[in-house]
Every structure is written in C-alpha cells, then in structure tokens.
Amino acid sequence: MKKFLSKLGLFLLPLFILGIVALFLYVKTDVYGDFTKKDNFAWNYNFQQLNDISTKKLLSTGRNYNSFVLGSSRSCSIYGCYLQTKLPDARFFHYANWNETIGGILAKLQYLDASGYKLNHIMVYLDTDYTFNGEGKLSPMNHYLITKESKAKYFYNHLIAFFSNFDLDKFKILIGKGEQTSSYVNRKLDPITNDFNHVCSAEKIRNYQYIQSDEEFKHRMDSLKKSDFFYERPKLQKYKSPQISEDEEVMIEQIVALLEKHHSEYHVVMTPLYDQLKLSKIDFDILKKHFKNNIYDFSGKNKYTEDFYNYPDRIHFQNYISKQIIDSVMVR
To answer: The pTM is what?
Structure first.
C-alpha cells in the first residue's frame, strides 16, 4: 500500500506543480482585473463581461456620477458625452452589459441606489430578443456586488471560466502574449463616461451622426446578403410572443419605484432589431402601464430596420441610429 501511495504521489506531483504554476500566472496576469487596482479599465479580451469591467471602474473612479446608461451591448451605441450636451447638469456613466436582462438592469439600479448615487437621468435600452429572456436571471460572471454572491464565489467563477475552456490562446495570455491571440479585442472605454470603444471629444460628438455607407462597406454587406447571412424578413409585420412573466413585471415595478424615489428623468427605448419583430401588444401594455409616457418603441418595421446596411453584424445597429433616437425622445 505504501509503495502504491508513493508511486501515486510521484505521478501526481508534476500535475500539482503545474497547477501551482498555472495559478500563479493567472493571478500575475490578472486577466479579469480581480487582484490589482487600475486607474482605468478596458475590454481587452472577448470573454470579459462588460458589467464586471464597468463595476470595477465605477469603484475605482470616485467620481460623483448622477446619470446612467443601462442595457445590453446595443446601448454601447449611446454616447454619454452626447447626452451631456442635452443635459448640462448630467454626469453620465455608461453601465451596460453584453447580454442584459431586466433583472440585471434592476440589480444595477439597486446597487447604485444603495451606494448613494443620484439617479437624475437614466437612459435604458430594452431588446425584444433578450431583455425578458430567462426570468431576469443575472450572469454568474457579473460583479459580485451586482449578483450579491460572495467574493470567494466570484473569484472561483472567474477561475473556472478561464480554465474550463483552456486552449492555446489562454496559454499565451498566461505567459504574457495575450496581444497575439484571437481573444484580444483591446476596445477602450472613455476614462470618464465609460463610453464604449471611443474617447469622448468634440470631434467624436460631431461625427456621431456619421452613416457608414462607403463602397467598400456596401460591397462587404452585399456579399453577406448573397450568402444569406442577412436573411429575408417577413413582408408583413410580425410580432414577438408575449415574454414578460409575472416575476419580470415585479422587477419592472421595482425599477419604477427606484426611479420615482430619485425623481429621475428617464427614457426607456425598445431597440430596432434586424429581425423586425414587433414587441407584443400585451408586453407593450405592461411596459406602458409602469413606465407611462417614458417608453418608446422602435421595434418592428420602421425606417431603421428596413435598411439592412444599418446592421453591420446583423445584431447591432449603426451608432447614428442611437443619436437619432436620443434626438427624438429628448426634445430640448
């Protein structure tokens, strides 16, 4: 028995040492920004959650924000710096996630309220394809202050997520060559507003109305359409099936209660998606009941969704659309 245990120990020792080295490199490279304090955060790798990055940035800045942008990755086309030109008293922080449920939006507002932030102005993007999918559950990769999980569970989730799909890219990241991987996206976030993929400036705001329509762009889009990447949409208006559950309606009520507590000026927008499916009347009536005249429905067939050139990857729309939406709902 002792001989067997000795051989087993000798067999497991290299694996143990390898595990210790991998864990050391994981902590050293700090892929998720869990162990070192940073002055600014960026979306460096495609497996990082925007919610997690943004929460860490909010914790590190110490700025007195009083206005917030909430929603899925489609809200990344909203420029907080542009909103501030319409609302001079606003100090916006872009607090989105890649896939955001109604529960995720509520959790962020609850965190902001509990942390003492004012909610003077709120811009929310809701999507017909995800916001009410999954009974409002949060991603386990969200920041622990949002999920209200323990810090240990949060670190554990990151560790398992990183090593569970370990490949050559992950190995390169561990040895400090992450920039050579396909996972490396290196998208910057504005140091103040946290706007996605740009640094705010007067020129950036002027170019917000830019519509991408050059010949090279159109050629690429036409090729994708020929390959059926851009599928044909129904000729007549089709509607999504009712999605909002009783639990999700309770979440909506809680969101409204928080906004009313802060006397917030807020705008809730149903985004214009490529599929052109209109929010069901049952769901719209629920949103209307709670958000009153603060709900704006751009889902379904309209001038934005009719033009497939507006959807470079079929999922997200061009930034100028958000500018026009802002201009139409914020009449100043």
So the answer is: 0.93
